[in-house]
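LOG
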Amino acid sequence: MYKHNERQMILPDEFCLPFGGKLNPKNRWCQLAAIIPWDEVEDRYAKNFKSQSGQAAYSVRVALGALIIQNRKSLSDRELVEEISENPYLQYFLGFKSFVQEKPFDPSLMVHFRKRLGKSVINEINELIAKPKKSDDNDSNGSDENGGGPGGNGASGTDTNPQKQETEKSGKLILDATCTPADIHYPTDLWLLNEVREALEEIIDVLHEPHIGSNKKPRTYRERARKDYLNIDKQKRKSAKKIRKGVGQQLRYIKRDLKIVKDLSLKSPLTLLDKRQYRNLLVCNEIYRQQLEMYRQRIHKVEDRIVSLHMPFILSAP
């Protein structure tokens, strides 16, 4: 069940602080709260709740606001809840009417917020933020429809200066897309290395194609590598020892594939690769370097760690 809450937005000076004082309206969280059309967003969010009975869900301002804060501050679910309970500006951004010291919600609810505010809903919200208000449209069109002078050319008797009209129509557009989800697989080292190995095998096939019939194709042991990966990946409970063993196996397969690619590049130009394959080759080298460093040092973090072969610009949180 969902109850509408965002029909009447409170102002920063209406937020109650038990220790006295008022919120600064120029604070970034107050300004961001003012430009998001919460009422329209709420209408779209409420469509996720078919039943009119049961426990009332948290408002869309709490759900969406929490995701925006988490993305901007790069916080975990637990750290996010603690940060909100300590910061009155964040509580105002979430639609609270006064400051509360208790935790606003359980960290586990962030899973439900991310599920309900999917990719399509976030895209609609971004469009709502970017869309100009109706009042702004009417103001900009009013001089053309009702401001015509006696000559009927659409110019009024007082606003004849083109520079003045241009100044009145100028403005500042603020867009916010900090809460757009990234559609990537959960980044596990074993899965990522398997993706790298398969991408290298595809590159090997392309580079060897001109030499079919004249040179023997290098052995990549792809079937054995795939079997080794599935033997561990399909297990419901994977111990750290088994995962490390699987990572070590895939690293050795990748090392062999990279050597094969290097040898083939002496016979076949890399121009045979398309843009995607060439980019994958560069990313594969970097992922192999990072994963090998973590494997040797027995760590799980590395600077600028890549978590997706196909979207290498998405880096893991520090």
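LOG (cont.) second protein
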Amino acid sequence: MKDDRGSVTIWVLGLTVVILGFGGIALDFWRALATQRELAAIADAASVAAASGIDEEAYRVTGEIRLDEARATDLGLASIDSQHVQLDSIVIEVAADGSSVEVALVDDVVLGLLGLFVSDDAPLTVRATSSAVPVLIP
């Protein structure tokens, strides 16, 4: 019985380290999930804003609802800028026929505990995309 003295303490310390490790990993993944949800909300707002960039002159002449690529891109970027976020990549693409717009946002997640195991060369990257079509409401 004297040889077993302190073995419970070592087991409890080991278990505590393992539980703290899993907790740190869980926090990093929650941070990534929160970042992805934030990017999705920003992309949704930007795609709706960009979809309001209708080519008014073409609409007046032909009655066709078509996006003006430059105007749609400017409106999408203005929507993103109004959110006051720094993103790694912003791509706003208007379909060739002007029928839709797609916004893609990419950002890297700053890792806590997982950063010890993952090199800075391969960060956790989060991507969100959203698309919208222009619609006139009478």
